């Protein structure tokens, strides 16, 4: 290889290394009710710990038991973004309920999306980010004993 083609190849390689990776990270705002009504949720979310989303009217609280976050990621390969996001949301809600049970709480209140520590509050929608191989949901909430 002559010096000119070697220099050209090195320049092209250096230029391509400076290009940012083109990873997909699509933001979706999806209906919470679709997750709660799914067949998977019927078998996995219990009735013993109530779920109340941030802009819904909140129940009367006797005592708060601290706040926490729940992050869930799922394999998005061979799934639509919506399907992967529903599964990630269901997993995040299941984690919140499980922690509530260990604390003796009977409700998880003020649930809001918190992807990359940016709050998104809605009574009807949650935020999910989906890529080519992963989808993720991040939630913040407070554990409570209801009156």
Topology:
Blueprint: H1 3-18, E1 26-31, H2 32-36, H3 39-44, E2 50-53, E3 61-75, H4 81-103, E4 107-115, E5 118-120, E6 125-130, E7 134-146
Parallel strand pairs: 2-4
Antiparallel strand pairs: 1-6, 3-7, 4-5, 4-7, 6-7
Task: Write up what this structure looks like.
The chain is an alpha+beta fold and 147 residues long. 34% of the residues lie in helices and 38% in strands. Strands 1, 2, 3, 4, 5, 6 and 7 form a 7-stranded mixed β-sheet that branches. A hairpin with a 3-residue loop joins strand 6 and strand 7. The longest helix is centred in the middle third of the chain and has 23 residues. The protein is elongated and about 80 Å long. About 3% of the residues have low confidence.
Structural class, by secondary structure, is alpha+beta
| DSSP E strands, number | 7
> Unreliable stretches, pLDDT < 50, 5 or more residues?
15-19
Distance between the termini: 80 Å
Strand fraction equals: 35-45%
Task: Give the biggest beta sheet.
Answer: 7 strands, mixed
Instruction: State the helix count.
Output: 4
Q: In which range does the helix fraction lie?
A: 25-40%
Instruction: List the helices and strands in order.
Output: HEHHEEHEEEE
Large-scale geometry: elongated
Mean pLDDT: 89
What's the Cα radius of gyration? 21 Å
């Amino acid at each position: 290889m002559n010096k000119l083609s070697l220099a050209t190849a090195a320049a092209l390689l250096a230029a391509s290394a400076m290009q940012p990776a083109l990873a997909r990270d699509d933001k979706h705002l999806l209906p919470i009710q679709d997750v709660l009504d799914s067949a998977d949720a019927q078998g996995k979310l219990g009735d013993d710990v109530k779920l109340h989303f941030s802009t819904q009217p909140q129940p009367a609280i006797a005592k708060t038991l601290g706040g926490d976050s729940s992050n869930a990621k799922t394999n998005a390969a061979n799934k639509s973004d919506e399907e992967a996001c529903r599964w990630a949301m269901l997993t995040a809600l299941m984690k919140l309920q499980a922690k509530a049970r260990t604390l003796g709480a009977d409700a998880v209140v003020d649930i809001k999306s918190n992807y990359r520590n940016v709050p998104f509050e809605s009574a009807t929608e949650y935020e999910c980010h989906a890529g080519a191989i992963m989808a993720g949901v991040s939630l913040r909430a407070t554990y409570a004993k209801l009156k």
